[in-house]
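Lab notebook: predicted structure, single chain.

Context: the supervisor wants predicted structures on file for every construct in the current expression panel, including those that have not yet been purified. This is the next one on the list. No modifications to the sequence; it matches the entry in the shared construct table.
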Amino acid sequence: MYSIKIKKNDNPLLNEVIISNENIKFKSIIYPNLGASIQKLKQNEIDIIDGISNNQAGLDVYKSKYNSSWLFPFPNRIPNGKYSFENKEYELEINESNLNNRLHGHIFNKSFSIKNHEAANNSASVTFSYSDEGSSKGYPFPYELEITYNFSPNKLNVDFYVLNTGKTAFPFGIGWHPYFNSNNISNSVLDFKADNQYLIDAQMIPITETPLKFETPLELNGTFLDDCFITKQSEASFKTDTYKIDIDFSSDVPNSFLQVYTPDTRDCIAIEPMTCAPNSFNNKNGLLTLEPTKNYNWKVDLKF
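Prediction complete. Output recorded below exactly as produced.
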């Protein structure tokens, strides 16, 4: 039987929604006020997701690593924070000052409301909602979001829903930024289907496509990655000594995109599904547009 507990903290940024099932030794924790990000996914005593600790040190880590954050209205970087849309110029606030970029959109630090939660014998779900009136610098487009986490044995399904509540169309893309733990990253194996990846400039911005630099499946060994791959299928897998995951991420465009990053700590890997390429507001690769009153759904299935 699944159960859901809402736990408040002296610091509301650290409030938790705890989903558990003792029968299958399962526990998950979501932080509503950190962009409805999932910071724990544990089964059979194995921590699958690398999340933050429930203290100030954890908040400091989140600011630099964006653990499991949802990336909207764009993932990754926009150089100098500048882009144009429908013959208008916009300038976003810079939040990666060392490279002079806007990084990872606007919602990673927003407070979401708990709209609904249900627990049953073999499943549980929690829906979080957020509304933006279009007051963000450089992105004057109002929208509403809902993020629904659906849990069942050995599976997490996430439904990301966005509604355009404004009077004009807006550009957007969506991404997810989870890190997955590995006690032995060198022996871990990453797999996905792609022919090409991006070469990047000094600002970490894609400049051109190039053939994939390695074959997949890839045993990581000493490989360090911070690359975006143009995937032929919206799928990826990661296998460690203790668990294996499969990620399915929907895409309505000819290509989908996968950012992969291996931190210097060599204890985890970021596997980031995205609907678009980095800097899509300018290069248009995978860029989506949402008309007034229209909505868009993006789904991510994680099997573990």
